[in-house]
Design goal:
Layout: H1 22-48, H2 51-79, H3 91-121, H4 128-149, H5 168-197, H6 202-229, H7 236-247, E1 252-263, E2 266-275, H8 281-285, E3 294-303
Parallel strand pairs: 2-3
Antiparallel strand pairs: 1-2
Helix pairs in contact: 1-2, 1-4, 2-3, 2-5, 3-5, 3-6, 4-5, 5-6
Length: 313
């Protein structure tokens, strides 16, 4: 057989990962905004001797670094999409970026909680006017970033979702700026309460509330991305749909089925069918519904005697 004739059965494993995702451009825009705000706040803090402005500028720097990880994941996945050393393409680089962002979110939540508890135990003097100005400024910048990222799904909790896996890299970036916006909003209410009502405890208390919410988002994203990184089986809905489609042939039963995510809304499958009237593997592949997103399927066909074939489920 000539080498050229093999091309008929060969195909790319990029699975569309070479295409620039909308989230990539949005993430770079948000990084530019956050970095600009970081420089302004650090410069102003040093010029005017404001610790509040300086602290918030350094906080912006940490989130610029976190968002840069998300941006790197986008670029790396796109540039290495055709690298054959990746068995099923670079789709999981997106998920890895989301997982890393979730770990950073968890660390951010721990720092928030630690600082808040410390200030509940030992309150510090607050420069209210400067602090309120910084909080409002942060809310405006991060609110704009939330709109730019435009993630239209709710933060994922620990439970399973049908068969849709979002752009986890975008979810991570979105949750970072949402956490910042939430922190600024809670800070504004707490500082106003402390300034005008004397509720000094409100500032650290709101910090604890914010830390709990951020931790919940982080845990949800960690659970979802870890499932994909560990190649856990796709949920029952997808497996059930494939089994129904293939076993509708009457004399075909599925002996073994493995289906796992290889990227956002992309799946690979290994299917073992048993039948006494075997058909070519490609025939069984055509029965898999297109909308499931199975981009790579391997079908094993085993022949058995009619009396050995189990009844339909």
């Amino acid at each position: 057989m000539h080498e050229e004739s093999l091309h008929r059965w060969q195909h790319s494993h990029a699975f569309g990962q070479h295409v620039r995702r909308p989230g990539e451009t949005r993430t770079f825009i948000v990084i530019a905004i956050t970095a600009a705000m970081m420089i302004v706040e650090i410069a102003a803090g040093l010029a005017f001797g404001s610790m509040a402005l300086l602290a918030d500028g350094l906080h912006m720097a940490s989130h610029t670094a976190a968002l840069s990880i998300n941006a790197f994941a986008y670029v790396y996945a796109r540039r290495h999409a055709h690298n054959e050393s990746f068995s099923f393409g670079t789709g999981k680089v997106n998920t890895l970026g989301g997982y890393t962002g979730a770990v950073l979110l968890a660390m951010f939540a721990l720092v928030m909680a630690w600082e808040s508890v410390a200030r509940l135990i030992s309150p510090v003097e607050i420069a209210f006017n400067q602090a309120i100005f910084v909080a409002i400024l942060g809310l405006v910048v991060n609110g704009a970033s939330v709109v730019i990222l435009g993630h239209h799904h709710q933060p994922e909790e620990g439970h399973e979702h049908h068969h849709h896996h979002h752009d986890h890299n975008l979810v991570s970036a979105y949750l970072h700026v949402l956490a910042d916006a939430l922190t600024s909003l809670l800070a504004i209410f707490a500082l106003l309460g402390a300034k005008y009502l004397g509720l000094i405890w409100a500032d650290p208390a709101m910090g604890i509330v914010g830390a709990v919410l951020v931790a919940r988002w982080s845990i949800g994203l960690l659970h979802t991305t870890a499932r994909i990184l560990l190649d856990k089986q796709a949920d029952e809905k997808i497996r059930g749909t494939i089994m129904t489609a293939l076993e509708s042939q009457g004399d075909t039963r599925i002996a073994d089925l493995h289906i796992w995510a290889v990227g956002p809304n992309l799946y690979s499958a290994i299917i073992s069918v048993v039948t006494h009237h075997p058909k070519p593997p490609d025939r069984y592949k055509t029965l898999i519904p297109k909308e499931l997103g199975v981009v790579h399927a391997v079908v094993e066909v085993h022949v058995c005697d009619k009396e050995d074939l189990p009844s339909s489920r």
